[in-house]
Here is the input.
Amino acid sequence: MTDSLMPRPRESLRALLLSQEFFDRDPRVVARALLGKLLARRTPNGTLVGRVVETEAYLGTGDPAAHSFSGKTPRNAVLFGPPGLAYVYFIYGNHYCLNVSCLPDGVAGGVLFRALEPVIGIEAMARARDMSLSDKSALKRITSGPGRMAEAFGITRDRDNGKDFTSARSDLQLRDDGYRVRRVVVTRRIGIVKAAEEPLRYIIEGNPFVSGPKAWAKKT
DNA sequence: ATATCGATTATCT
DNA sequence: GATAATCGATATG
Here is the structure.
């Protein structure tokens, strides 16, 4: 074959950019629908891609666990804005966490990205996390957790808060490559005390890159 | 394998 | 001044 002489389709053509309408829905619906989609980050050096395997829904002003519960502030303003924007917050003096805003402009709601399965740029992700891939068990820990995946992708509030996931010109995008999720498991949310019992955490059943102890990947 | 604890700072009361 | 949508290290069964 003369494969190398043919114009190679760009990566972006093989995975469709998610639209703003995709995010203009209830966070529970979006959280479920995001499983299996691709998070893509364009950097000066290369591209990072991870498949979404774990999400959590935060319901806005009616949800005691949501940052938007007590109304709009400078920090959470993005959650009240248009759908499909990156909401990044800094937590415990150590970690950034990445969310996407949901529902129409003026209505709060969002989805927290909790874990990815690395697809492209694994070496770069490991570097960003100061990890070596020589240890086989290290692979699972690169992007399995909200703080971990944010660090692997170089997400910070200064750089990324408010970015449009749905813009063709954005360096932070969400795409659909046609991957089909077999089965979804819903559990209580992790790391919170308020409204923790609500079944608002969504994971791809059996996926090894889901965060937390193995037991959390099954039920609770 | 599960439990506990300390780190470290932006944000809000 | 208290809190937090976490992580990694350490301790213990």
Summary: The domain at 3-181 of chain A is CATH 3.10.300.10 (3-methyladenine DNA Glycosylase; Chain A). Residues 70, 73-75, 89-94, 157, 213-215 of chain A lie near DNA strand B (CB under 10 Å from a C1'). The mean pLDDT of chain A is 93. Residues 27-34 of chain A form the longest helix (8 residues).
